[in-house]
Design a protein that fits this description.
Number of domains: 2
Strand content: under 5%
Helix content: 55-70%
Number of strands: 0
Structural class: mainly alpha
Radius of gyration: 23 Å
Distance between the termini: 47 Å
Number of helices: 4
């Protein structure tokens, strides 16, 4: 380990070290859509619709051999979407209230 490795490990912000600024002055990175608390519930909801369509509505003969998989998958994904949706909604509501 070199001496420069020790200094970068002690500094909490590598961006501040590179820019020669105080770590408290470094701006936060802009959030991405993946950081939104409701991203995962919406993704799981979409997968639920896809699995549900293949499990109950689709009459394609090639898909009929996968009915049980799609029906069970739709149920599991629905439960996951509801669980993460409740927590995501609470987090989103808290974020909105803290900004106001």
């Amino acid at each position: 380990m070199t001496e420069s490795d020790d200094t970068t490990r002690d500094d909490p912000s590598p961006q501040a070290l590179q820019a020669g600024r105080d770590p408290e002055e470094v701006e936060e990175q802009a959030p991405t859509p993946f950081d939104h608390p409701l991203f995962l519930p919406v993704l799981l909801g979409g997968l639920t619709l896809w699995f549900g369509y293949d499990g109950w509505i689709n009459q394609d003969p090639d898909m009929l051999e996968h009915l049980t998989f799609n029906r069970v998958g739709a149920g599991v994904l629905f439960a996951g979407a509801v669980y993460t949706g409740i927590g995501g909604y609470r987090e989103w509501k808290e974020d909105r209230e803290s900004r106001d």
